[in-house]
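Fill in residues.
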């Protein structure tokens, strides 16, 4: 665990220092676009923070290559270099889009290419699904499923990038929960080492988000742009996919020692990586349906995302971001508690997670949809008639 903590601190420190440098250089050379119609901010703000995040992530990977504790996934360096190569590609395209506003077809093509690099050259594919010991027998089915999963998560994370600190905070919470899950899962399956690629990527993303958030918190000095959001989605999907290579579906689905509830023992390992990005996926799905029904491209920008709707309800920018944080934490922690309950035979097993989730979701619904005090009509003060003045100057 100490090595993971060091990775988080190292990545956060490098990312913060580089983000501050990118911010200063962007202001000096005016490397920021104008305000668009769908933007919430009113002041032109640099959008190149993704560069700093990528360099921080790259530095963490390179340092890990010299750490004997992480030699387990550097034993086959092709996978790691494929991840870094795909990440570099998506960051370059994201930076180009942040500067020149690329056509959505170019961006989508680059996303499929980056996902293909990870699946084909990195050999990180969904070979098995821990659902009753299901194996993906066809290599082309595995490749296609992997590529589409990565592209969907990338766009889901990118779609919610609309408020100060929103993506960085949501990904920080999601990767924090996923790190705890992957670490416990590897330990509980009896692996000889707790060090694995999935937990390492999650730790690196935690550090990158921590380091970037101080400059991205409302009012933001620096945005991560498409480069940062697409990078986070790419690496989050990659870490979730790599965890499927650690698990033996037969153990998860058929062995009572892995969890008292075979049903939850089978489904939680695949559900948790999904629910940690549930909110971005929901926003992504609604946006695609909305735009296609209007006869538009599914990637055409608009101002009807969930965070935009919350602003229209009367929530402030910061309130909306905190509500999104709460949703992410409640949903992901509920599934984590279900796993812990079944694994460690808590009283009530998964019911603790269910109760926590139901209460949390109810509270989040109330906070989300109840009108904010700022949106309610304010009572007008009743003015009292002025009393005649006894001051002679008032008469004169």
């Amino acid at each position: 665990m100490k090595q993971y903590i060091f990775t988080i601190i190292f990545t956060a420190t490098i990312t913060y220092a580089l983000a501050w440098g990118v911010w200063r250089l962007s202001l000096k050379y005016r490397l920021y676009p104008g305000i668009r119609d769908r933007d919430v901010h009113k002041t032109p703000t640099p959008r190149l923070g993704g560069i700093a995040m990528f360099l921080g992530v790259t530095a963490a990977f390179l340092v890990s290559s010299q750490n004997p504790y992480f030699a387990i996934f550097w034993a086959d360096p092709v996978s790691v270099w494929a991840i870094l190569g795909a990440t570099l590609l998506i960051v370059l395209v994201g930076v180009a889009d942040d500067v020149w506003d690329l056509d959505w077809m170019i961006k989508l093509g680059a996303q499929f290419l980056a996902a293909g690099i990870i699946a084909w050259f990195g050999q990180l594919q969904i070979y098995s699904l821990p659902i009753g010991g299901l194996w993906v027998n066809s290599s082309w089915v595995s490749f296609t499923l992997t590529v589409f999963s990565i592209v969907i998560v990338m766009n889901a994370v990118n779609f919610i990038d609309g408020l100060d600190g929103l993506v960085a905070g949501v990904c920080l919470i999601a990767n924090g929960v996923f790190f705890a899950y992957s670490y416990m899962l590897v330990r509980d399956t009896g692996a000889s080492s707790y060090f694995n690629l999935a937990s390492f990527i999650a730790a690196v993303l935690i550090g990158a988000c921590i380091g970037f958030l101080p400059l991205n918190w409302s009012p933001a000095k620096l945005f991560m742009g498409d480069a940062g959001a697409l990078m986070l989605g790419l690496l989050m999907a990659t870490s979730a996919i790599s965890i499927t290579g650690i698990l033996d579906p037969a153990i998860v689905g058929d062995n009572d020692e892995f969890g008292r509830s075979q049903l939850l023992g089978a489904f939680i390992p695949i559900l948790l990586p999904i629910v940690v990005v549930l909110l971005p996926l929901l926003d992504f799905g609604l946006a695609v349906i909305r735009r296609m029904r209007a006869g538009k491209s599914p990637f055409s920008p608009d101002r009807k995302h969930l965070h935009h709707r919350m602003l229209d309800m009367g929530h402030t920018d910061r309130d909306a971001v905190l509500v999104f944080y709460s949703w992410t934490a409640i949903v992901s922690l509920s599934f984590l508690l279900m796993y812990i309950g079944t694994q460690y035979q808590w009283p009530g097993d998964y019911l603790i997670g269910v109760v926590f989730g139901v209460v949390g979701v109810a509270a989040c619904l109330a906070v989300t949809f109840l009108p904010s005090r700022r949106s309610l009509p304010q009572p007008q003060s009743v003015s009292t008639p002025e009393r005649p003045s006894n001051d002679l100057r008032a008469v004169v």
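The two ends are 83 Å apart (CA to CA).
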